[in-house]
Structure prediction request, 425 residues.
Amino acid sequence: MEQPFYSFIITLSSHVPYKIPETHQKLELLPEDKNTLFGDYLQAACYTDEAIGEFLDDLNNLGLYDNSMIVLYGDHFGIDCRNDAAERVKAFLGHDYTYNEMLNIPLIIHLPGSGIHETVDTTGGQVDFMPTVLNLLGIPGDHLVMFGQDLLQAKSGFAASQTYMLKGSFIDDNIVFEMARTGVFEDSKAWDKKTGEPVSLDSCREGYKRAVMEITKCTNLLEKNLLKDMQLSGGTASADAKGHVPDLPQADDEMLLHHETVIDITMLTDIADDPDILDSFFDKGFRLYLTELETEGPESVTVPGGYSFDMLSAWLTSHPDSLLVLPVNDGDISILKLLNKLYPDICPQIVPKIKNLSDYVTVEYQGFRRIILDLSALPGIDTDKLSVFLDRNTISGAVLSEEQAEDMQLSGMLELRKIAVLKVE
Prediction:
């Protein structure tokens, strides 16, 4: 092989569901661990460890080991600390199995001829790989777009999370901060990485803001295709993008801002057979329509009355500038999952309407970018808490009660963030 070369290899045996053929199962498990997720994980980890050892031996035999930088890392954890199997992990470790352990994922770097054997405790994430490796290779990265930092020269570590912990969560060298599922900062929790003792939320506020900002910058950079317009003058994109990427994460949804009336078509039972009924609303300039949808088994979506969704779906396809507002009740996203499966092409025209702040994450994770918040279902919501929620989550529109519509502070907050105030008729 021509040198120098770069090779990226992915291991799959150590991934869920951890099913290894019996001929490769080398561990003698305790009876209670056989045929369990935890037991299968141990067998898979053992097999993977052996396979990586053989791979390194082969590199050595080919004369490549002493002439190669080898980077080994895990891109995510093994067993979820929220899984039932976590109790067995806890017993195995002899202490609680929390995000501390779950997200403590290895990054191992072999530097040929360096003679360096060192453990670096700086907290980092995958965004830090590139600047760290470039430094070790002696390659300047000033002209590149990078959001991480060189972990070998960093004064302190920081990792923002938005997958297993919600956006706003972070881990630094001393603290783990877990953003509350309600989306409200004051409902969150934080603890010392070493002792596990609770930490004051006030001490986490700056880290929380930094985590939100870092993820917001990355999201805007990708979704708005800003890379082509960035002229980096040195340093990393995280610092340099500040003048290029809007701080506010809201959608500035022109469709909702210019069409504030939502037509409730739930009771139009004939619409299933003749969705052209909607043309009369469309011709009058209405573009937002609301209805409940139901599931009929694992392969069928119906409108009220039990009629197939197919005809309405076809109408939406022929009217791409129309949106269907879909209420999400009690966090039930089964209909959203089914729409993603059966009608993926019209999903960009589906706008979930949520009644609880905690439903936002589950809806967004289904890939829906437009989300309406029904504030009329939250009459006593604290505006300060709502402001914090809106700082970290993208809401396209809001439905207000009559009393809320007269609240100038609330209206001003939504107007500042360019969130459309909608009326359902």
Summary: Confidence is low (pLDDT under 50) at residues 233-251. The first strand starts at residue 70 and ends at 73. The two ends are 68 Å apart (CA to CA). The chain has 14 helices and 16 strands.
